[in-house]
Amino acid sequence: MLRVRKSAVGWAVALALTAAGLTPASPAAARPQPAPTIDWRPCATDNSAECGTLSLPVDWNQPRGERFDLSLARRVAKPATREGTLIFGPGGPGDSGVDRVVNGSSRFSDDLRARFDIVSFDPRGTGDSHPVVCARDLLARQPQLIADQAQFDAVLADNALLRADCRARTGSLYDHVDTTSAARDLDAVRVALGERQLTFHGSSYGTLLGQRYAELYPDRVRAMVLEATMDHSVDTRAFLDSQAVTAEDAFDEFLAWCARSADCVLNGRDFRAIWAGLHARAERGSLTDPDQAGAALAPFELSRLAHKKLYDTWRWPGLAEWIVRLERTATTPSAPALADEAVAPYPFAVFCQDWSLPVRDYSEYAGHLRRAARLAPDLRYPQALFALVTCLGTPTPVANPQHRLRVRTDVPLLLAATVHDPATGYDWARNVARQLGRHGAMLTYQGWGHGSYSSSPCVQRAVDSYLIDQVVPARGANCPAVEPEV
After folding, report:
1. What is the reported pLDDT for 484?
2. What is the distance in angstroms between the CA of the first residue and the CA of the last residue of the chain?
3. Quick check: keyword Signal in the entry (predicted)?
């Protein structure tokens, strides 16, 4: 549970954050205070990286109230070449920034690692930063798709039970895992690191964190990259439609690669007919997953797993092989294995505090299903449909609702956008660029995959130049596609 800290140290940290401009300051609180610090120690799994925690308010409107520990990690640049700190905003929601730094620092170029300490964190409510936890059986009640009005009503009731259970098990932090709160955490991290301004690279869901920070603290942004950016201005219908179109486009690109590549095991075969047959088996309940000990694959899960394998082009040959194995699996599904643990982490809780996606009743929900199937006849069930289910009945207004961006930074934010991104569509990036106006710049990667920094040397060079020297790419800048490797 949350620890209530009323010690002198706790008060000093709260006052220091107020003095740094993170909370409304009273005259007494405005006096200079020691800056909050992070006690860095060698990480348990890799002592070449450093791990630490930062004590922060659960509710930024009550800086002297309950606190939690934000978990962080860093890799330090060599003193001779160090210029500052680069903070990475992890995706998900639910990805671990600590794990990214400790185990995945190769994501960043040698040049970046030479110039910057690389720092990231587990966002509040996830990983080791006081994760939201809930009863596993209540989480398991959430259906992938809703079949009728009776089930729609049952989901509303079950979701209310789930919210109460998560709140009871997690404590008051459960109500404050939204990205606005996380943006205030991010500024506290900047202060604790001794950085006058923020140098930031956010990926996927981490782009919401960057966008919100730039809105709240525009004068504190030194440079900010938004890679695979989300558009936090769309309503329920636009959110679902864009996700369906984006997923189907990525699937079409995968099929085109398979048709031209001898490295695809389905090359020369009628791929769409094979895929339609798998969907039909899933609808009948006779399709099993060869990677899950024969567990049944429902239609939504079939689409979800295929969609996930489209995120990286190096996975494409494996996706084709998986489809061949699906063709050959037995038609008698086995019962799913039961987990022993009574509780489970629930990192998706942040989504329901960042997005208001209301659905009146089953009739409206069914309309969304039909429209998604028309827009994405192959991947008929975009993952966004589950967001509607899991957030159904969330009280409004949510803490960080959708809105058009209002950013006024001195240095334009850099959007690194992929034309055939399977998760955060190119249209989202273009729409965000329009909202940013002269306070944004867009670099287009003409290829495939969820993100581009790690897959395109051209994108990497442009992003590094922006982060290191604040060189903004010219209007219309783009990088050529890199053919999938096998």
Report:
1. 84
2. 47
3. yes
